[in-house]
Structures are given as C-alpha cells and as structure tokens.
Design a protein that fits this description.
17 helices; Rossmann fold; about 400 residues; globular; 7-stranded parallel sheet
C-alpha cells in the first residue's frame, strides 16, 4: 500500500530560483517519484501570486495547502504568552509563527483527512509543528538546513545583540533534535551538532538539487582564465563576507603575482553598493544569471571562500558537480580530499597559490574529473532518494516499535 507523507515546510518554494527553493522542491519531487503519496503544507508570502503557485504545484502533481503568514506577531505573542512562559524557545519569532491557529488547524485537518503514515518537517524552527504531530501520534523526520542559532550569529558578524536573541534558537535546535523521530542533517558537520543536541537518529541528506547539476567540463589552455564567485544574493551576511574577501584580498594579490592572467566574475542579486569601490577592469559583475548552467560552462575555476555561515552552501558544491576546479575554505565534512578533488585554503595567500597552480589545463581537468566522480556518488538523485526513504522508513519503524 502506498505510504502517505505529510510535508510541512516554511514559505512555499516558488519561483524555484535559489538553492533553498531548489533543495525543497526537488525534495518534494524525489519523495513523489519514489512512490510516496505526499501532501505539502506551507506558508505563502503576500508577494507570491497564489494562483500561479497553485497552478505550478498542480502541474507537478503535488497536493498543496497554503497558509498566509501571521499578520500581527505582537498579537500572537500576547495570545501565546502562557505557552511562552512554559517554553521560552517560543521567544524565537520564527518558531512562534508556527503556533498560529491557521497552521495548527491545517496540520490537524491533514492528519484527520489525509491520515499520513509519517511527517516530513523542514527547518528546526518548525519544532512547534513537531510537537503537535507527536501529540497526534505521527512520527516525524526533521530535515535541517543549518544550525539556526549559529547562523543567526554569523549573519550579524557575531555582535552582542544577535548572540542574545539567538539563545532561544539554541533551545529550538535541542527540541527539534530530541523530539523528532529522525533528523536529516544537511552536512556531516551538522550531523555531529544534532547528535550533541541529543538526537538518537541522525542521517546526512545533502542539498537535494545538486543531482541536476552533475555534468563534465572540458578544460583547455587560455590566455585569460575566467574565475567565478557564486552567490544567489548579497542580502545574506556570509555572502557579503566572502565577496569582501575576494575583492579586497584575493584579487589584489593575484594582480601582483600574475597581472592580466585572471578575470573575476561576480554573480548574485543586490550587489553591495559599498563594494563598488573595489571593482576594477578585471572584475565583471553579472547580477542574477538566468541560465547558470550555461554560464558556468564558459568559466574555468570556481572561487568560493566560506568565511562564515552554516549549513551547506550550494556555491561550494555546485562547481564540484559541474566539472569546475574549486578553491574553498572547507567542504563541511564531505569527503573531498585536498589536492585530489578540491583545493583548500584559509588565507588570501593560499588562495593565490592555488590559482597559480591551476593555470595549466591538465591540472584543472584532473581536479574537476575527480570531483565530478565523487559528487556523482554522493549527490545523485538516486542517492538522495535512498537517504530520504531510509529516514522515513526508520521513523515509521521507531513509531511502530514504540506502540507495541
């Protein structure tokens, strides 16, 4: 008999542009294509066209329940003051949003009518939904995108006030880890975090949209090598940190060591105006790239510093999948070996040394081929479906044993 999976996710992925939207939507499709009967509950922003969203998901064959965001968080705060006294983690406004009447009623209705065998909940700040589902005797797989508490600190440069407001987020992380049947962490590093938080069942489920980026790349000798720095938007602090590092430290050094041999390409919306002072003739700002696959196929090297930020940044892993040699800070615990699949660096000087090293097309090709082979093993659509299925079946099994 076809098993039913209730998916509860934050704002509905539409349009499918950034890494987060691609990850979640691809996850829906993978569960559906594996043979599960799925229903999605999600919030919808005021700026999203409800009719277009509903048509898009109907065409994809995905049943959908949309809930508007709470109009007044202050009113919700007062209405839930009793719960907040009992559970201070609700001081995190992101979590409090999911105690609103519309969300709770939608979940109760879905459990009553759809009768799911298991639920799939995305993002740890949805832990109030986890608690509600547990009270209704539904096992839950929690899919975490990052350490929300640490991400909050990183996004604001580690300043004092963000550290204070992140305190309830740390509590949220522990609740989600301990009360979900299974946690699907996004990286091996995150897996260790959730085990430390008290989760007994943790699996690693990478970004689910990476499988579609898998392809090879033919490298040739060129007079000027095109180096790409990937970002979807600079509204995130960690993307601005990385861009600043490239423009103010790496680019000036490489100009001195190898003048005229490298051209930098900067992608992503909302380029910071204060950074324009660092632009020179060898830096091209592209803003949003509609056809990123084609664009990457015209470049030679990916430069992806990860000086801050949590989770799994697609700008690091997409080059590994699509045949570009990658120079980066780390790969978040995934088994890409320095000098074999990737080039690791933690200083501007080291980044420059690696750029000089990959000038030879043979070196670039070797790195890219090794990275692609390992990426195909870890990030393929089949591998993702297998992990998700294992997580869901494990959650159902745990629940069944608990009721024996």
């Amino acid at each position: 008999m076809q098993k039913r999976v209730l998916i509860v996710t934050p704002w509905i992925p539409y349009p499918i542009t950034g890494a987060d939207q691609q990850d979640r939507f691809q996850g829906f499709l993978q569960l559906k294509n594996t043979g599960y009967d799925i229903r999605v509950i999600a919030k919808i922003h005021a700026f999203q066209d409800r009719k277009k969203v509903e048509t898009f998901y109907a065409d994809a064959g995905i049943a959908l329940t949309l809930i508007p965001y709470c109009r007044s968080h202050v009113l919700l705060l007062f209405r839930r003051i009793g719960r907040i006294f009992c559970e201070p983690a609700l001081l995190d406004g992101a979590a409090l949003e999911y105690t609103d009447d519309a969300t709770e009623q939608a979940v109760r209705d879905a459990v009553s009518i759809f009768k799911p065998d298991v639920a799939w909940v995305e993002f740890t700040f949805l832990w109030p939904v986890v608690r509600l589902l547990r009270s209704l005797h539904i096992p839950v797989v929690m899919r975490s995108a990052n350490n929300e508490a640490q991400q909050s600190i990183d996004e604001h440069g580690g300043r004092f006030f963000p550290r204070i407001i992140s305190i309830p987020k740390f509590r949220s992380e522990r609740i989600a880890a301990r009360e979900s049947s299974v946690v699907c962490a996004i990286t091996p590093w995150e897996k260790k975090w959730y085990e430390h938080c008290g989760s007994k069942q943790v699996m690693v489920l990478p970004l689910r949209g990476l499988g579609r980026t898998l392809r090879t790349h033919k490298h040739t000798d060129k007079k000027i090598l095109d180096v790409v720095f990937l970002s979807s938007s600079y509204s995130n602090g960690h993307n601005r940190d990385a861009l600043h590092f490239v423009l103010t430290q790496i680019a000036p050094l490489i100009r001195k060591r190898a003048p005229g041999e490298f051209r930098f390409h900067i992608t992503g919306k909302k380029f910071p105006e204060e950074f324009r002072q660092f632009l020179t003739s060898d830096v091209v700002v592209h803003d949003f790239i509609p056809d990123l696959d084609h664009f990457l196929d015209t470049t030679d090297i990916a430069l992806c510093p990860s000086v801050s930020g949590q989770g799994m940044q697609q700008k690091i892993f997409e080059p590994l999948c699509c045949g570009l040699p990658l120079i980066t800070h780390h790969t978040a615990g995934y088994p890409f070996e320095d000098g074999v699949h990737v080039l690791l660096a933690d200083t501007a000087e080291r980044y420059v040394e690696h750029l000089l090293h990959v000038r030879a097309s043979k070196v670039r090709q070797q790195l890219a081929d090794h990275a692609h082979t390992l990426s195909a093993k870890i990030f393929s659509d089949a591998a993702m479906r297998s992990i998700a299925t294992d997580a869901l079946e494990t959650a159902i099994s745990i629940s069944s044993k608990a009721h024996l």
